[in-house]
TrEMBL record:
<dbReference type="Pfam" id="PF01408">
    <property type="entry name" value="GFO_IDH_MocA"/>
</dbReference>
<dbReference type="InterPro" id="IPR000683">
    <property type="entry name" value="Gfo/Idh/MocA-like_OxRdtase_N"/>
</dbReference>
<dbReference type="InterPro" id="IPR036291">
    <property type="entry name" value="NAD(P)-bd_dom_sf"/>
</dbReference>
<dbReference type="InterPro" id="IPR004104">
    <property type="entry name" value="Gfo/Idh/MocA-like_OxRdtase_C"/>
</dbReference>
<feature type="domain" description="Gfo/Idh/MocA-like oxidoreductase C-terminal">
    <location>
        <begin position="138"/>
        <end position="403"/>
    </location>
</feature>
<comment type="similarity">
    <text>Belongs to the Gfo/Idh/MocA family.</text>
</comment>
<dbReference type="InterPro" id="IPR051450">
    <property type="entry name" value="Gfo/Idh/MocA_Oxidoreductases"/>
</dbReference>
<protein>
    <submittedName>
        <fullName>Oxidoreductase</fullName>
    </submittedName>
</protein>
<dbReference type="Pfam" id="PF02894">
    <property type="entry name" value="GFO_IDH_MocA_C"/>
</dbReference>
<feature type="domain" description="Gfo/Idh/MocA-like oxidoreductase N-terminal">
    <location>
        <begin position="3"/>
        <end position="124"/>
    </location>
</feature>
Length: 416
């Protein structure tokens, strides 16, 4: 059985990944935790029976100890990934790191290079690669079921309420405090597209902006908080009372308060970030963005990310020389349309766990890597390269220039 430690006991660390140990105690046991929030730290320690001497209020305290175990999960906020990862690699830990690697492109490269140099495992939580749905899609493309791959249309449908929760009110609302939207939300997509295409991105251009979630669009009668007597709260699809307070005992309400006590939750909405009007937050990340990508095997990709969808899903059309593949991840459906007229519909097998089982499968694969010392589905360097596509897209959006990836990477290395 593998022993592991967790740095960052937020919702991803505590519920998405470490919960695997509660279901498979014969495979992994958590023996230490570092988390500055006392309530979260205490809850995680209670769930995993972690003794007081292995409960730390910071990653620095945990990593100051002699190496406590083999495996380490780092699930801190985006800007707090680089330092603990670099220190933990030196310490000898095998690491599962929440995405994105870092909001800085050079730091992402440096982490990957160090893991490679030291021969350590550094697996990035690009869970989509582990999903049975996308694994099936990759197999179909590699088998040339629709001939040679030529073009992809790919949509990241964020969903109106998810945008409001995570990218307007939540932890990833402000690029200076976390990451640009194209990195934080869409590094999954950039990684997936690189994997599916099976090539290296040569050029990228991108456009987008924050258009809707601004004070200029606040409806008449709105207030700074949904709990301040807002006159339009009843009709507003972004009402914090609807999303977090009324009969809500699951995610995302648990982000507001771990316990479902109504008094505690109301106080959190009155004082915390999730009770704010979506038109009066300190958000600056885009609410829609497009990117065009050219790969070295001549495949082109048209990517769209938008907040303004009802469903939270990824949809796509993959065009080959002999047909098309269309899909909607939310429906777990892949449709193959052959130019001959034949049609097939595939519903990949589902696995228990978050993100259609991807959270379970990435933990399973990470533990297999630690046990066997063999490579995982993706390397840290490959993850860093897909991150660089996202960074280049943001550079293009801000400058209006088409980015040539080779030049962009060389310029980064000059500053190293």
């Amino acid at each position: 059985m593998i022993q592991a430690a967790l740095i960052g006991a937020g919702s991803r660390g505590m519920f998405a990944y470490a919960s695997y140990a509660l279901k498979r105690p014969d495979e992994v046991q958590f023996v230490a935790v570092a988390e500055p929030n006392e309530e979260k730290r205490a809850l995680f320690a209670k769930l995993h029976n972690i003794p007081p001497e292995n409960q730390f209020s910071s990653w620095q305290e945990l990593l100051a100890q002699p190496q406590l175990c083999e495996a380490l999960l780092i699930c801190t906020q985006d800007t707090q990934h680089f330092e603990p990862t670099m220190a933990a690699l030196d310490k000898g830990y095998q690491i599962l790191l929440e995405k994105p690697m870092s909001p800085d492109p050079l730091e992402s490269l440096q982490m990957a290079e160090k893991a490679e140099r030291l021969g350590r495992i550094l697996t990035i939580c690009h869970g989509m690669r582990y999903s049975t749905y996308y694994s099936t899609l990759k197999q179909l493309i590699d088998e040339r079921i629709v001939g040679r791959l030529i073009s992809i249309q790919w949509n990241e449908n964020v969903g109106f309420w998810h945008q409001a929760h995570s990218f307007v009110r939540g932890n990833w609302r402000n690029s200076k405090e976390s990451s640009p939207m194209i990195l934080q939300k869409c590094c999954h997509d950039m990684d997936m597209l690189q994997w599916l295409v099976g090539g290296q991105c040569l050029k990228i251009s991108s456009f987008g902006s924050l258009t809707h979630f601004t004070p200029a669009n606040a409806p008449e009668g709105s207030t700074l908080r949904c709990t301040d007597g807002c006159q339009v709260e009843h009709e507003c699809p972004y009402s914090a009372l609807k999303l977090y307070y009324n009969d809500k005992d699951e995610w995302p309400a648990k982000v507001v308060a771990l316990e479902p006590d109504r008094e505690v939750r109301l106080k959190a909405l009155q004082e915390g970030p999730y009770g704010r009007c979506v038109y009066h937050c300190d958000n600056d990340v885009v609410d829609h963005q497009v990117a065009n990508l050219l790969f070295d095997n001549e495949v082109t990709v048209a990517f769209t990310m938008t907040a303004f969808t009802n469903e939270i899903s990824r949809t796509f059309k993959i065009m080959g020389t002999a047909g098309e593949i269309r899909g909607n991840h939310k429906w777990n459906e892949i449709e193959i349309i052959h130019f001959s007229g034949k049609r097939q519909v595939i519903h990949p097998e589902r696995v228990e766990g978050g993100h259609d089982g991807a959270d379970t499968l990435i933990m399973r694969d990470f533990l297999r890597q630690v046990r066997s010392g063999t490579a995982g589905r993706t390397s840290a360097m490959e993850s860093a390269r897909s991150h660089l596509i996202a960074f280049a897209a943001e550079h293009s959006r801000l400058t209006g220039q088409t980015v040539i990836m080779e030049n962009y990477i060389n310029e980064l290395k000059v500053t190293q």
